[in-house]
Amino acid sequence: MRNAYFIHGLWVLVAAGAFVVGKLQAPASGGNNRAAAPLSRSTPRSGASSSETAAGATARGGRSGRTGSESGGRTPGGRALSPSAMEDAMAVVLAETDPIKRQRRFAELLESLTAENAEAAVRALREAPRSRWNRGQEYSLLTYAWGRVDGPAAVAFAKEQEGRSREWTMSSVLAGWASSHPEEAKNWVARIEDKDEQHSFTRGLVHGLAQRNVKAATGYVLSLPQTDDNRPAGYIRSIARQQLSQGIDSATEWSSSLPDGKLKGSAMETIAGEYVRRNPEEAARWVSQFAENEFATGAIAEISEEWAEDDPRSALQWVTSLPEGDGRMRALGETISEWARENPGEAGTYLSDLPSGAERDTAISYYSRRVVSQDPAAAMDWAHSIGSDELRNQTLTRTAREWMQRDVTAASTWLESSNLPAPVMEEILKPREGDERRDRWRR
Asked: Is the pTM of this model over 0.90?
């Protein structure tokens, strides 16, 4: 349940960027931007005059036709930093060894970002030697800020990148662009012909739209066609995480406004993961009102799993109070699995007392797959006790494969005397990519 995907980390950084950049680019009292002053004292790089570094060049139109005045970044003399002066400012940031001073200087640099000098700042950061500080966060904040002041130029730069860097850069600049010029960003994404690429960039678009107007962002996602890979669910999760930053009440109220269905379920599951960590009892009461709906299955399972990590008996008491159905059955399995992680004996005793039926079979399947790492022979015995032929064979196959990966010799010995049905044995021994040990044993 706990997804540790790369893109989630990116949204944490981009969310921080939204806050920092928004604060820095808000109009200052009296029209003066005092925080930019230290940048004017940076040492000029070779070829840049001291007057240029101190005062900067007069703002000129960027590639998109926007000027530096949109960002509000100014030197004390009222002029924007030129690209060369921005490079010098970045050098000052990168040379700072005190982390607090470095963050302050970097914030000042963001405040001085304009359509004319943003690319110079980003390239200077990319080309500089890597340091021990959080370069990834700085890069995300900087590209996000560039997207805000000059989206077209920022995405043009992002398209030049390759591999993971391209996705990272494009997502952050699109989030920034959508937060300041949503229609421009939406139209640009709509024109992308490659659907996989369009999907990758839509995540950044949705995140930026949500920062500006949650209702508009939600409407945009709801208007997208549903696909087999359920990509819109990922977009709605992005909005859910944005709402969580505003508080649980805001997030749950927003999710309740969504139409019943898969997208609502995805939003609820995201919210449930955070809610249960704060207050499992309240989270359980919140999701229980939707327990009879199929779309709530994921949220119910998320709460039961997280709750069971700390208090499996309380989680089980709640799960068994839910109406019968897929949601309760899956939640029971998740709870038993987490309990077995900490205390397989107690969890096994609980299983033994369950009446025969679909719920017991499901719980045993989860249990077997959890304890195979601790007692594989016992896990296989438990799998054998499943009443449903289909689920029993699936569980035996998955459990045996896991055992083979961990200890091919012991697993092979057990299988040779197991008398498993031929189709199950064939499925267990079916060659899989990267599993050379099983292939050798089969030969």
From this structure: no
pLDDT at 14 > cutoff 60: no
- 242-276 pLDDT, tens digit per residue, is 999 999 999 999 999 999 999 999 999 999 999 99
Tell me the CA distances in angstroms from 8 to 11, 108, 262, 428, one per residue in order: 5, 27, 20, 34
Q: Which long-range contacts link 312-319 to residues 24+ away (Cβ below 8 Å)?
A: 312/338, 312/339, 312/342, 312/347, 314/280, 315/280, 316/350, 318/284, 318/288
- Per DSSP, the three-state class of 171 is helix
**Mean pLDDT to the nearest integer, 415-441:** 74
- Three-state secondary structure along 335-387? HHHHHHHHCHHHHHHHHHHCCCCHHHHHHHHHHHHHHCCCCHHHHHHHHHCCC
In this structure, what token pair is assigned to residue 305?
């799993």
Show the CA angle centred on residue 140, arms to residues 250 and 115, nearest 5°. 105
Which amino acid makes up residue 117? N
